[in-house]
Write a structure and sequence with these properties.
This protein is mainly alpha-helical and 64 residues long. It contains 3 helices and no strands. It has one domain (7-63): Orthogonal Bundle (Diphtheria Toxin Repressor, domain 2). The mean pLDDT is 90.
Length: 64
């Protein structure tokens, strides 16, 4: 079983995907850069990585 994402992480992820879906890919490192650009310095490292991981997971599911 995987780790459970909080409501804040899920809400942020869905908002970012809604804004710019075409910028996200299935690789974590690229998504981390995109999330960092979109969230700016407001979000911390842990939040950025959690959102990027969740985006990556959702993009892989969509790809299948």
């Amino acid at each position: 079983m995987g780790r459970i994402k909080t409501k804040m992480i899920k809400r942020l992820t869905f908002e970012l995907i809604k804004q710019s879906r075409e910028r996200f890919t299935t690789t974590f490192d690229e998504n981390k850069k995109v999330v960092g650009d979109l969230l700016g310095a407001d979000a911390g490292k842990k939040t950025r990585n959690s959102v990027a991981g969740y985006v990556t997971r959702l993009m892989k599911v969509v790809e299948e």
